[in-house]
Amino acid sequence: MPPAGLELARMNRKKGDKGFESPRPYKLTHQVVCINNINFQRKSVVGFVELTIFPTVANLNRIKLNSKQCRIYRVRVNDLEAAFIYNDPTLEVCHNESKQRNLNYFSNAYAAAVSAVDPDAGNGELCIKVPSELWKHVDELKVLKIHINFSLDQPKGGLHFVVPNVEGSMAERGAHVFSCGYQNSTRFWFPCVDSYSELCTWKLEFTVDAAMVAVSSGDLVETVYTHDMRKKTFHYMLTIPTAASNIAVAMGPFEILVDPYMHEVTHFCLPQLLPLLKHTTSYLHEVFEFYEEILTCRYPYSCFKTVFIDEAYVEVAAYASMSIFSTNLLHSAMIIDETPLTRRCLAQSLAQQFFGCFISRMSWSDEWVLKGISGYIYGLWMKKTFGVNEYRHWIKEELDKIVMYELKTGGVLLHPIFGGGKEKDNPASHLHFSIKHPHTLSWEYYTMFQCKAHLVMRLIENRISMEFMLQVFNKLLSLASTASSQKFQSHMWSQMLVSTSGFLKSISNVSGKDIQPLIKQWVDQSGVVKFYGSFAFNRKRNVLELEIKQDYTSPGTQKYVGPLKVTVQELDGSFNHTLQIEENSLKHDIPCHSKSRRNKKKKIPLMNGEEVDMDLSAMDADSPLLWIRIDPDMSVLRKVEFEQADFMWQYQLRYERDVVAQQESISALEKFPTPASRLALTDILEQEQCFYRVRMSACFCLAKIANSMVSTWTGPPAMKSLFTRMFCCKTCPNIVKTNNFMSFQSYFLQKTMPVAMALLRDVHNLCPKEVLMFILDLIKYNDNRKNKFSDNYYRAEMIDALANSVTPAVSVNNEVRTLDNLNPDVRLILEEITRFLNMEKLLPSYRHTITVSCLRAIRVLQKNGHVPSDPTLFKSYAEYGHFVDIRIAALEAVVDYTKVDRSYEELQWLLNMIQNDPVPYVRHKILNMLTKNPPFTKNMESPLCSEALVDQLWKLMNSGTSHDWRLRCGAVDLYFTLFGLSRPSCLPLPELGLVLNLKEKKAVLNPTIIPEAVAGSQEAASNLGSHTPLVGFPHPFSSSQDEEEIDMDTVHDSQAFISHHLNMLERPSTPGLSKYRPASCRSALIPQHSSGGDGTPTTKPQWSMELTRKGAGKEQPPLEVGVHPAAAALSVFTKETASSRHGDHHHHHHHEHKKKKKKHKHRHKHRHKHDSKDKDKGPFPLASPASGRSVRSPSLSD
Amino acid sequence: MADAAAAAGASGSGTRSGSKQSTNPADNYYLARRRTLQVVVSSLLTEAGFESAEKASVETLTEMLQSYISEIGRSAKSYCEHTARTQPTLSDIVVTLVEMGFNVDTLPAYAKRSQRMVITAPPVTNQPVTPKALTAGQNRPHPPHIPSHFPEFPDPHTYIKTPTYREPVSDYQVLREKAASQRRDVERALTRFMAKTGETQSLFKDDVSTFPLIAARPFTIPYLTALLPSELEMQQMEETDSSEQDEQTDTENLALHISTDDSGAEKENASVLQQNPSLSGSRNGEENIIDNPYLRPVKKPKIRRKK
């Protein structure tokens, strides 16, 4: 393709939202995916894809597709063998940078690497040359069929195999496999255009064992036995144009449940779980009904499937016409706590079916619309299902979360616009990652992004009314469904893509309102608003003088200008005032309606029309104000710090009916430890009508107040008498009633109160004996025999309560913790924990909640010095094979131990697990926990902070995590937390100036200067596997762990990259085949391999074996010259071929690739060229995804 | 049995020597009765003028007499039971004798004959004395509405309730206490046993026995144990299901997760299943054939399908 075409595509992108124009010089209309062999034992998959494309430009001779991990055997275009190149710069982000440990640098390089293969920019890892025979055909813009044979061997991402190690056939063992990943990750399991904006129709075929089921997107057309009758082929058709990223599959011995309410909905679960599945999904039809009703639109697909699988990547993943859930969401009717959570997950996934799967996005910057709408309608479902209180509480929670995150990190930008020329002003310079691509985002940021998106949708709703909002959604959906039925007019399909501007246009068409200011404030700009409010009452003027200040200079904040609602509750009633927040106006005078003299015995009207009696004696006699609320409807994304007197907070807590206001007053009252606050909280606790979550948080507030008032506290410990009254027997107050959890509100309260009570402390800062005995009695007398519900969560919380009661041990002379000097109270606690933990082995509880709590409690005891600190127990529970919740709890304890005891060994153990654990969720979680609770941070002195660790983490994010975007971003987060953005302080000073300066100053970075060969040979000798801290290296090169230089793929920007490939492709494909790499280069490669393993901290012995095999199969490649004059001068061509029998592709490779290296403008890319061999003569060319760094390719390691 | 035992006791002194081979008291009693009958037969024979008799003939006669008396007893019992009594009266005997063809009128005269011999009652016939220890208090007299011929009340101890412990202070409390400590003891014993017999982990390096933790063992399929309710819970659930709690729960359940009513669900069916209106009533009956592609039979391969 001529560069002009690319320019065109870019310009289209810049024009952006005007209408969708594909970045590709062709239009994909149909794709066939056929997976005809799945081997669970070897965890491999063999299949082919066939893409039907229509060229849109005349001289299309190169087709870029996405593919990662897949081993491609053969590509044919219209039945003619085609040459192809495989290049994935994300496999290893930075090369040739022995000393470069700068995170800024990494993030830029990573963003560049992702861009280089970004399908939204028309790029891809796989580049196919259209055979010259077809050029004429292409010029007539006639259809091309691209047929790609591929296989996947032990995929590390994209497809996840779960193969329990028990006796029996794979079906009996419950082995299954499913697709997974973060954002567009379909390229990990089959070659495709992995973009949300390239829609096509699909034909999917999966051949599985006869005892298994393959569930995939679309309609199951038929199931056919293979000839030997031992396997079945499932044929799926998806006639609604769908993006490859929304295609999923799950295969395994699933039990099938047809929804009794909706027969086109089918549920699948793993063997033996059918009763749970029945119960769990029995609710789903109501969610369907709700969405269809509010959207006045039928569910877009003709069928829907839910699959519940083990070792899920995320709890909920929505794909076209199917959703994949974690099997841990299944529950029986006896479980209370999980039920609402699971239903939320079901509702969430269904909302994403409409917005996210059916309606897709034009580009990454439009993602917020989809996440916003699906989150918003999910919120509506929440409101309808769990009630307004729950909904408002949830909104407040989400708002608090996003506010906290933005203030911490400096802002979440919903609609990033990447201006063409202004590359420099990065919209997210405060972040340590690029927000240009979903794949470079920190997971936490992405979660917060979704959170903000739905909150902003809610703000839009506030502005234009819900009715209009739903009309807009309906309009989007009807447009899309009209477009989707246009089977042969693929240009219409772009109607199924949503863009920011399209969405906004829809809003203005439907509502006639201008929401541009709102969008500008919250969508085009990051940051939240921070208000500080205080007031004075002017008696003479009978005016409330309100002062509202803003902090818009701190990171993550922005200035707010516009209306702000303030609600004032006076004696005469509640009044709303809308203030206009302007640049310089801080003070606002609000006239009061009431005279301060209060009428005796008059009821006070509230906002909701209710009139109540209040005891007004606590009030200020001169003021008619009961309480004041700023922005009560949460119509600004803000944090409000408002000052009002304690009695006002107390009135607000008692009488304001809005749960958000109650919640706010509870958190405010923490600062007022007075008997009046105590009374207000106790009253709320007792009030049955009060929202249970408010009552629960009142418990904790009461505990805090009691602790502050400890010297003046009278009566029994806080909440004890209340608990006794509510939950204990009338005749014997020390015995709790037999459990009856019929009333969920009291159930939650009963669970929470002891946990809060255990936080009470006496004057010696110890948990009062009375409270401890009380909790022990609760445990002792717990009797669930008559209960319809399981008490596992209740018992778990009792253990949490025990853990809460633990206070630091009084240690004399740092004595060793032994049984003899064990505190008698702790002995009692330990007794309970031991018994509970042991009973769990015999009678396990649902999701092992009790084990989880016990492990946490043990860690608390260790941390407080009662029990010797020791990670062995946790490490045994963290092993693969335990239930995931247990593992996470145990890992959390190990992470904490690592931090407290600064244990190098444990940190290594954790890092090892991050790379090698079979469960992706656990890997993510460890990184996340390490980031949340880091062993040290960037400004801290720690013995753990060593150069070896820097290198190890650098390698982890640079090349060790290429199979999982999210994992890589998690590693980046950890690196950032530990070392910060710039060069880690523990590294030796850059005395070696030359190299470092080269790297850090872009201007100087000239590839020709870098002595690759020298650096390579020297560094190859250095030992990579060494984990010992390398401090103060005498020689810069020997300390280096990067000897990538040789194998290194090169740096150049996409323009150069493309033009270079064009050059290569323009030439007939066959002659190129005979070009081989010089022997000298190969020999340079070998030492590098053998010292390899820099991708992972633990050296894998298999690699070396692989290497020998590869080495043996290598041919002597002559040098390829003169391809690109500039590039060739510095290039090292590597090409390796491994010859083997065709059928035995598992371990052998037919491939040859060339690596060129080149530097250009401080950007790195790498690229490999795989040319097909002579078809008649030799085996088919095989391009390995790992070609560049084949040694550490996921597909090569056994 | 009591009789037999008493008889054995009474005749114990006499039969002690022979009791070695016939240890059974019932046998003793039988032998004694038999001997009495022999005496009777012998005396009747003497009365009839016989000087002597062969042993065999005496035995035969004894047998006949015994049969006769047994028959009288058996029939008399039948008659008395026929009239819903437990003890035969004179009239029962008379009717029996008449039934057996015996002229009752001759009986008084026969009884008063001059030459009859009187035989001392055999010691075994002594009524066994009920040991005093077993009678607790006085048998209650019949109330006036019960005829006196009815059997007496049994001994008071058989029906009188005697408070054997003091009234509990709080019944419930003790029970709960007991249940709790019992369960705790069982659990502790069980877990300790498991810990003793298997691998353990310990929180203290110096001590492995005070707080033994059963070692964590990975499962091959961890989610099964984590998710499926244990058998105990299942059982419990079934028990509570049958109780009236059931109804309440469902309504309670709905209180938290406000659920649509039936009409809503019906509507759902109508809207979603429009193309298949016959299914709208399917909630009640599964007899409607569900057309779901996953339930369709798997097709046989066609000959040489093109891939």
Q: How would you characterize this protein structure?
A:
The complex is a heterodimer of chains A (1198) and B (307). With 1198 residues, chain A is an alpha+beta fold. Chain A has a domain at 22-98 and 120-249: Immunoglobulin-like (Sandwich). Chain A has an eight-stranded mixed beta sheet with strand order 5-4-8-2-1-11-14-13, with no helix packed on it. In chain A, strands 16-17-18-20-19 form a five-stranded mixed beta sheet, with helices on one face. In chain A, a hairpin with a 6-residue loop joins strand 16 and strand 17 (265-269). In chain A, helix 8 (367-386) runs antiparallel to helix 9 (388-409), helix 20 (769-781) runs antiparallel to helix 21 (792-804) and helix 27 (920-932) runs parallel beside helix 29 (965-979). The two termini of chain A are 39 Å apart. Residues 1-18, 420-425 and 991-1198 of chain A have low confidence and may be disordered. Chain B starts with a helix and ends in a 35-residue tail after the last helix. Chain B is elongated. Among the domains of chain B are: 26-110, Orthogonal Bundle (Histone, subunit A), CATH 1.10.20; 175-244, no CATH class. Chains A and B meet through strand 13, helix 6, helix 7, helix 8 and helix 22 of A and helix 7, strand 2, helix 8, helix 9 and helix 10 of B.
